């Protein structure tokens, strides 16, 4: 770490997190000129451009390892400060940024946070992204940990298996009678409206390909909300793959039926986090693994 200045590293993190030099200056309570000087000095030390001056500003490939280092130093410093001051002193807030896929966030993951020992000054910055893309935020140093479908460890991270989230194909009985009168066939799948969370979400298309034996291109409704996806299914606008924990209630109530009884899609999930000795991170990891073991396959 020779030659690296902690204030410059924090400034780099602020520029990327806030998206601009001006916003970083407001966060750090310094002038934009001071922010620019710190970034320039850090780039001169490293001999590489670390920030792509765009809207928003983003870290370059050379800047990503330093961004991760800045986050690690901040976590350890705040954790040590909070421990040193004690629970009654205030200050030293420890904030942990975690990215989680939408379905985990809507089902089992909040329970893991509630299982953590109560600690004054601990707060979370939860981000949401598709499980196939959450690891990207680990790579660029934006988050400390991630629930991800990527089993290969991101550089500088540990990876632990959590289990698989099971998805079942749901629709209303009326929708089935209208679109799947001949059964759950490739021709029916090609024409039946499909409900998808967003353009990153490939769970439905993976299931269709597994059933049909080839990719299909059905009409799609994009509904970027887990509760709204379920509501849209119940209203008969389309069918979708639904996490088993959520599907059970609709199936039990009779409002929906399983389009493909006996068939499902399991998506393996992993917990990746910085390779860092932190009491907060260790406690979070233990809670996530315990709750995942109770809820995932």
From TrEMBL:
Keyword set includes GTP-binding: no
Domain HTH lysR-type residue range list: 4-60
Keywords: Activator, DNA-binding, Membrane, Repressor, Transcription, Transcription regulation, Transmembrane, Transmembrane helix
Gene Ontology MF terms in the entry: DNA binding; DNA-binding transcription factor activity
Membrane-traversing stretches: 175-197
Classification via SUPFAM superfamilies: Periplasmic binding protein-like II (SSF53850), Winged helix' DNA-binding domain (SSF46785)
Listed InterPro entries: ArgP (IPR017685), LTTR (IPR050176), LysR_HTH_N (IPR000847), LysR_subst-bd (IPR005119), WH-like_DNA-bd_sf (IPR036388), WH_DNA-bd_sf (IPR036390)
Family statement drawn from the similarity comment of this UniProt entry: Belongs to the LysR transcriptional regulatory family.
Matching PANTHER family: HTH-TYPE TRANSCRIPTIONAL REGULATOR ARGP (PTHR30579:SF2), TRANSCRIPTIONAL REGULATOR (PTHR30579)
Protein name as it appears in the record: HTH-type transcriptional regulator LysG
């Amino acid at each position: 770490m020779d030659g690296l200045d902690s204030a410059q590293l924090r400034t780099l993190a602020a520029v990327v997190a806030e998206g601009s030099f001006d916003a970083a200056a407001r966060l750090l309570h310094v002038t934009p000129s001071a922010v620019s000087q710190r970034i320039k000095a850090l780039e001169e030390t490293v001999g590489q451009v670390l920030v792509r001056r765009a809207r928003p500003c983003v870290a370059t490939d050379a800047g990503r390892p330093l961004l991760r280092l800045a986050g690690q130093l901040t976590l350890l410093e705040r954790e040590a400060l909070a421990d040193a001051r004690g629970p009654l002193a205030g200050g030293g807030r420890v904030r942990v940024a975690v990215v989680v896929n939408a379905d985990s966030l809507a089902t089992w993951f909040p329970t893991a946070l509630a299982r953590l020992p109560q600690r004054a000054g601990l707060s979370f910055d939860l981000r949401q992204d598709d499980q196939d893309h959450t690891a990207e935020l680990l790579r660029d140093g934006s988050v400390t940990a991630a629930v991800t479908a990527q089993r290969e460890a991101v550089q500088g991270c540990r990876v632990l298996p959590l289990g698989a989230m099971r998805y079942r194909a749901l629709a209303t009985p009326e929708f089935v009678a209208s679109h799947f009168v001949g059964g759950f066939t490739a021709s029916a799948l090609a024409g039946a409206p499909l409900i998808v969370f967003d353009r990153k979400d490939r769970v439905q298309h993976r299931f269709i390909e597994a059933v049909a034996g080839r990719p299909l291109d059905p009409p799609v409704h994009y509904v970027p909300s887990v509760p709204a996806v379920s509501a849209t299914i119940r209203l008969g606008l389309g069918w979708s793959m639904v996490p088993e924990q959520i599907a059970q209630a609709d199936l039990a109530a009779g409002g929906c039926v399983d389009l493909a009884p006996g068939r499902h899609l399991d998506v393996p999930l992993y917990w990746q986090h910085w390779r860092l000795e932190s009491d907060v991170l260790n406690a979070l990891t233990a809670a996530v693994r315990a709750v995942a073991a109770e809820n995932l396959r």
